[in-house]
């Protein structure tokens, strides 16, 4: 037999662990997969195209999907490793029930689902309909998001339904609606390529949206100027033309000062302001005192840098402004977003080629999931649950009398507070791990323990699921057909590659079965996911997020369709507002006055350091999925506290020494990573870990008054070195990030 160029073992690990490698004569190939399925990555809002390789009903590897226009085959470390979660030994294969003192025991589906419906009825009979709440998530497809909204309101009949996007994009959504009447990136990302100036603020693109970096590099290759605004010198900032190291919680002062500079130096687009906007005078009046000197004292950014940023922005002919959670996770998240939009409108650079603005959507279906009605105040098509016309339309689609449609319910954090008050006594959650991802998790844990009944649908036993009475074994992204909407606003097709393993079920079948047991089978019978999508199309018709003209076939034929798409002969809308008709009632884009105000908690002598939290490239959200993928764990096994050398010296903290971080909510111990790339008054902790390694032991539950997003990005802390070294002197790739 000819000598193999690579050992069989190596080939097996290279192409996935589950292929039967059969050595052959000559040059060895691998077993052909049974199928190659074009779908999308299950993680972030980029929704990169990927091809999954399937063998014997298991996902065993992947191949790039070169033709998909956004990522053109590129994937980040999470996308490359994602398939490894499929056959993970921790996968829940059947429903389990918690038996006090004994742990979780497997039960039959019939027992599990009957118990859920019995508990819902019991709790609601004793305490009213709204005493049973639902928490949903936007890693779910559009079909499932839509279904969860309808299920909560029509089958459970509760007003209390909200979703994990409440921790994510709601500040941007509220700001976008106020300014434009519609909540979507104004342009697709190909328009970045020819923008003259790009501002990226509060978005660690290289780590959180790695494949988007490509479009920013393309722009740079074409001569674009790049301005990065972030308390840390994030990877993207290293080759930026300007980096503004903003003090966390002070962005609105920066944007206000930039707006005043543009006005003082005649860098406004008067035609656009006069013809297509409203509210400019009041908005400018609000920042009359915002001099560069004042902004320097508030934001900690040298005034010359602010001037340069305003000059670059003001003198460009084309531009793109992108932001993410860095400016949105604040008790003034909506104001920060409006501050950015004011800069875009003042220069009239929207609704044209290479002139764009947008929040970068976080979760896989962060865009579509926030449009189709599993928010407490929303109905499908981004309709308003308090609007009588909207209520009437959706009640008709769902075949119920309008008065039976519940009113607006509580937001995610408010639900936790209501559980504490004893008003909410039962909970069903799907696709949400609040014990890790909500702020002040000691308070969240106490709430979960107060519930009379809690049922969770997940495919892993998440930290939150451990507090459930019942955990229903649900499905992964690749186990059901559906659609998601990418951060660009492109509706794409998620294709079923495999069936759920063991006795696990698809999320959809679990929800439909529960609805039937609650007596609503007639309103919840669909032949397949496409049938749910077709109902969603009708429910969204005429709403601002209009999907009516989008069909599965059209999505498949075109590798995606951009909404709004109001009729089947409509090609979709990659670039919004080219006709300058905004989606507001008066058709104009609205300026909104923004005054700077302090974060909820500022530093003082007791808690003198600013704490901010966020992400690293190798982990995803609460980590339930990525902490189970060995290679990703290897990149960063535990969260590190990023701290500047001068601040470390002040507290005598050494590299990799364990530091106790305390806030008014709790304490946590984290190994120090001393880096020059962070402000001297600020420390950063990534939040993907649970328990004693959770950043959310420390964060504050103060909400933005409009969007109700928690202030994850700023609170006050103190530091205490413990003299313990868990990883003595060790360095890794992240030391340079
Ligand atoms: N690797 C990875 N990628 C992800 C995710 C993940 O968990 N891991 N999650 C996805 C999701 S759901 C989301 S929402 C996105 C989030 O994507 P990002 O918003 O890019 O991620 P974060 O790390 O939360 O915050 C971004 C930056 O905000 C900065 N920042 C902190 N405070 C301030 C401030 O006051 N002002 C400004 N201007 N900046 C500030 C931080 O230093 C940080 O670099 O990522 C998505 N992609
Ligand atoms: N301190 C701090 N906290 C933060 C943030 C921060 O920057 N700082 N960021 C916030 C942001 S932006 C976000 S988006 C939230 C995210 O917070 P979460 O939404 O709680 O995080 P996930 O890890 O996505 O939790 C989803 C759970 O659903 C499961 N799941 C995933 N896909 C599916 C599916 O298709 N079906 C079913 N049945 N289950 C599924 C996963 O296994 C996981 O257990 O965290 C927020 N928390
Ligand atoms: S950039 Fe986002 S969607 Fe693309 S491969 Fe990475 S995690 Fe997946
Ligand atoms: Mo998010």
UniProtKB/TrEMBL annotation:
Short name of one Pfam family: Molybdop_Fe4S4
InterPro entries given in the database record: Asp_de-COase-like_dom_sf, MoPterin_dinucl-bd_dom, Mopterin_OxRdtase, Mopterin_OxRdtase_4Fe-4S_dom, MopterinOxRdtase_cofactor_BS, Prok_molybdopt-oxidoreductase
Residue ranges of domain 4Fe-4S Mo/W bis-MGD-type in the record: 34-90
Gene Ontology annotations for the cellular component aspect, listed alphabetically: membrane
Entry keyword set: 4Fe-4S, Iron, Iron-sulfur, Metal-binding
One Gene Ontology term from the biological process aspect of the record: respiratory electron transport chain
Keyword Cytoplasm belongs to the record: no
PROSITE patterns in UniProt: 4FE4S_MOW_BIS_MGD, MOLYBDOPTERIN_PROK_1
Renumbered residue ranges of the record's region Disordered: 365-384
Gene Ontology MF terms: 4 iron, 4 sulfur cluster binding; metal ion binding; molybdopterin cofactor binding; NADH dehydrogenase activity
Protein name: Assimilatory nitrate reductase catalytic subunit
Lineage: Bacteria, Pseudomonadati, Bacteroidota, Chitinophagia, Chitinophagales
